[in-house]
Amino acid sequence: MNAVLSFNAASTATVMTTAQPDGNVASLSRITKRYANGVLALDDVSLSLRKGEIVALLGPNGAGKSTVVKLMMGLSTPTDGSVRIFGADPRQTSTRLRTGVMLQIGRAPEMLRVREHINIFRGYYPSPMPYNDIVRAAGLEGIEERMFGQLSGGQRQRVLFAIALAGDPDLIFLDEPTVGLDIEVRRGMWTQIRSLASRGKTVLLTTHYLEEADTLAHRIVVINKGRVVCEGTPAEVKSLGSASAGGSTSRSLKIIRCGTSLPAATLLGFRGVTSVETAGDITAITSTQPEATLRELLALDETLHSLEIKSPALEDAFLALTSE
Ligand code: ADP
Ligand code: MG
């Protein structure tokens, strides 16, 4: 037996369908988690999930993402702070019956067919999702009679996703569900995750793919070294990241790309300019005061060409937020 199988082995219970009084489906309050080996994996982390929301927990390896998932699943207990899922303890059977999980290191018996895996898990729950709905939601049509051991990496991930859906959960944890999958398979899974949220399910997704967080999440929580670095809509996180990329609190950071004859030393003297990089004919000027920078640039360089002004990508924002 492995983690995916053993945690789901709940049998009977009565199921309540109330969210917490504060409207949150799940919450971590001021959680500290120190493992037995002394590693401080989470340091005063608070996080809540609202009904129908897709929240992406975004952070580099070792940030503490899987620890958050394990605590919310009741697979691990906090050193300090409290975890509430549907207003209750995550280890209660009634709570587990309403949650589904795709753990980061998920495995399933190789000799069982896709159909069998799904039906075994459906059997653990009082009101499972209909078999055909699961197959459709996980994109498993046509491979239902194949054995798990014969599937490709992407197909295996989809079976694990199907297993997470078996109990028709209200709250779904997906721990790096698309890691190692090619972009086409990932996009397919994104569509499936979106459709769950549109049916009122709450999804907590961990990822280190910036694009994934940006395209899927209603809210992104950036975590690094066990602490929440920032939290907001994808647009808010990008602008916060931009500000810290520029080393200032300005939210107007832009990258001005152009062909210019001015030397880097001159450009660095302009108001707001924080960095200058040249590759071939094109110079990228990062500025916290792009309008002022542009005025000086246009005034001093009559040969300026190929002008382009961009907002920093989420990637830059993310790196800025998670680097020292
Ligand atoms: P992520 O999922 O973001 O990569 P994890 O939550 O898995 O991060 O790990 C956070 C930190 O806790 C890391 O330093 C990791 O080595 C450590 N850690 C995770 N699980 C355990 C464990 N069971 N025992 C000891 N240390 C652990
Ligand atoms: Mg992890």
Structural commentary:
It is a single chain. This protein is α/β, with parallel strands linked by helices and 324 residues long. The protein folds into 2 domains: 49-78 and 91-234, P-loop containing nucleotide triphosphate hydrolases (Rossmann fold), CATH 3.40.50; 246-322, Alpha-Beta Plaits (2-Layer Sandwich), CATH 3.30.70. The chain has 12 helices and 13 strands. The strands form 3 sheets. Strands 5-6-7-3-8-9 form a 6-stranded mixed β-sheet, with helices on both faces. A 4-stranded antiparallel β-sheet has the order 11-12-10-13. α5 (131-138) crosses α6 and α9 crosses α12. The longest helix is centred in the middle third of the chain and has 16 residues, at 183-198. The two termini are 41 Å apart. The chain binds adenosine-5'-diphosphate and magnesium ion (MG). Adenosine-5'-diphosphate binds next to α2.
